[in-house]
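Re: beginner question about structure tokens

> Can someone show what the tokenized structure looks like for a real chain? I only ever see the sequence side.

Sure, here's an example I had lying around. Input first:
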Amino acid sequence: MNKQSVTAEAGTWPAPQFLDVLAGQRLIYTFCHERSVGTIVQLMAATSREGTSTVVRDLALVAARMTGMRVLLLDIDPPGNKQITALRDQYGIPALDADPLSSPTASLFVHRLALGGLHVTETRLTPATSSPAWAKMFDALRTNFELILIDSPSIDRSYDSIMLAPAVDANLLVVEAERTRSAVAQNLRDRVLDVGGVVSGVVLNKQRFYIPNFIYRRI
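And the corresponding structure tokens:
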């Protein structure tokens, strides 16, 4: 994908890579409708390379288009700087400022980007923050952002997403079409349910359409 220069003032917006804009807007509206505090949505996968980071970034880009919504993309997938790097390098979105976030690590920063109300975290020079420490921050985050999207590591690398599952409002399971076995996806679902988390849906990622889309729409 070619690098794009993007500013909210110019009225140009980066296109999501995998997510349909209207589908993303409907999903965000469902999560945030009639809530008095910020909504926390965690995206998680069973194995690496399912595309979780791209899907959560797509959702953040769609949410940034929605007028007046303050959105935080919380990158807890170590080292915690992939999202800010992708938004800068892949899309050319400049960061306007960075503020330390009240947390056990002094090197966690929130960048406000030049794209609507989009903010993204970056962890610098320190090990990953533990799951209990993240959970303690959620109340404060809810008061500052209408939507918090969490990019979590896959459970084949870390159990952080499982530990956080009960503390968030919704867990979305990212499954790569035609690659992830159903038993693996079901095991991830069961792990979330076992700890008291809410599974709100499954994102079937990288789906291939073998017949034209207009035919799918007529089925």
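Each token stands for a local structural state, so reading them left to right follows the chain. The domain at 21-207 is CATH 3.40.50.300 (Rossmann fold).
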